[in-house]
Design goal:
This protein folds into two domains: 212 residues, Aminopeptidase; 140 residues, Gcn5-related N-acetyltransferase (GNAT) (Aminopeptidase, 3-Layer(aba) Sandwich), CATH 3.40.630.30. The protein has eleven helices and 15 strands. The protein is α+β, with helices and mostly antiparallel strands. Strand 3 and strand 4 form a beta hairpin. The two termini are 36 Å apart. Helix 8 runs antiparallel to helix 9. The strands form two sheets. It has an eleven-stranded mixed beta sheet. The protein has a four-stranded antiparallel beta sheet with strand order 1-3-4-7.
Length: 391
């Protein structure tokens, strides 16, 4: 494959996934992670949830060799740091205090989606040696791009550990943590509960009992009615409106499009009362191995309903369908008491300004030590009877 990667490697930015095309995209993103699929990113762009006006201008990096697409890096020109979940607000403020512009920056990420997965899609037939060549060319190209003063920096967020390690040789590496539930081949929810210490087991049972009078129904996205989708969107928008004053990053057109284009990987959880009135709703995605809890909303504030809708129902679904991991979203230390384990997340960064690069590098090095200690402390608080057996 080394001769395949000759001097003819070309790297270019594209302003939409549509201009790249589904066949080329699917050739390099080959797993079933729903968030790197062509349909997901196309829905973001066509619904204008992602566009220049929203501060996410598509700048997808396409790598070709002998005119064939061999790799793609989904990228966006950002004019702010919202919707990334790897927080660099303090870096932007430091730039501003020194009279420098931090924005625009270049971000390789899935918008509004703090889920780890492929960030550098590459053809499966490529050898390990050639893969390293391509990764090095991408890094060099992005470094030259920010040195041209077009961007202050570039950032690759929530990428796999192997790519993180490779990029960490020449970039600033940053560690984060999330909380995922791991399925230990539990036959039923009660078998999961049986692995918890008595006090935590009783607390979960009490939480669930308090909202057991509601009806909870999972519906495949491609089988949900238009009214059911509208109900979810209403819940989502109302909850965002109450908490942040806007109706959320994603609009109704986006949800309508994913219902049509990738509904088989979507699950709507509808929560209703005895009169069949919608009380709350949550949106999940599935792959062959993972359940992803993404969005939720409620029309009535009910104690414990969020935990039931977004955590316990997801755990039950994962057990019933034999899924190995339930990723319920970013942050949320309170998940630990409910059996979610801390896991590492990875990002790489490069900054054009030499002095700021040194400061950010040292900051991230110190931050990594704190993150590792934080994760160790939380691991000791896991509610399982035998923590040493956890993976």
């Amino acid at each position: 494959m080394s001769e395949f990667l000759s001097e003819d490697i070309q790297l270019n930015f594209y302003d939409s996934v549509a201009s790249i095309g589904k066949s080329k995209w699917s050739r390099v993103f080959t797993d079933d992670n729903p968030f790197t699929q062509f349909e997901y990113l196309l829905a973001l762009e066509q619904s204008l949830s992602v566009c220049s006006d929203s501060g996410w201008r598509p700048q997808h990096l396409v790598i070709t060799s002998n005119s064939d697409v061999i790799a793609i890096l989904p990228c966006y020109e950002k004019s702010h740091s919202w919707g990334e979940y790897v927080f660099d607000w303090a870096w932007a403020e430091a730039y501003e205090r020194n009279g420098l512009e931090y924005y625009p920056k270049l971000v390789a990420a899935i918008p509004f989606t703090p889920v780890s997965g492929q960030r550098i899609g590459m053809i499966s037939s490529i050898s390990e040696v050639s893969r390293e060549v391509v990764l090095n060319r991408i890094t060099h190209f992005l470094n030259q791009t920010i040195k041209s003063e077009q961007f202050s920096s570039w950032h690759c967020l929530f990428l796999p550990q192997n790519d993180f390690k490779h990029l960490s040789h020449s970039t600033i590496s940053r560690l984060g943590t999330q909380f995922h539930w791991q399925n230990k081949q539990y036959p039923h929810f009660d078998d999961f509960l049986a692995q918890l210490v008595s006090r935590k087991r009783k607390a979960i049972k009490k939480e669930r009992k308090a909202v057991a009078y509601f009806n909870y129904d999972f519906i495949d996205g491609d089988k949900a009615s238009k009214e059911q989708w509208q109900g979810f969107v209403h819940c989502y928008q109302q909850t965002y409106l109450k908490r942040s004053g806007h109706t959320g990053y994603l609009n109704a057109d986006f949800f309508s499009q994913i219902a049509s284009s990738m509904g088989r990987q979507v699950r709507l959880l509808l929560v209703t009362n005895d009169q069949n009135n919608l009380i709350a709703s949550a949106l999940y995605f599935v792959s062959n191995t993972h359940l992803y809890g993404r969005y939720w909303g409620c029309l009535e504030e009910v104690d414990g309903l969020h935990f039931e809708t977004c955590y316990y129902q997801g755990i039950e679904y994962a057990i019933h369908h034999g899924l190995t991991v339930f990723d319920a979203g970013a942050q949320g230390e309170h998940k630990v008491a409910r059996g979610f384990e801390p896991v590492e997340t990875y990002s790489n960064h490069e900054v054009a300004h030499d002095e700021f690069r040194k400061a950010i590098y040292h900051y991230c090095q110190q931050e990594q030590l704190h993150i590792k200690q934080y994760m160790q402390d939380l691991a000791c608080k896991l509610p399982y009877k035998e923590k040493d057996n956890l993976q």
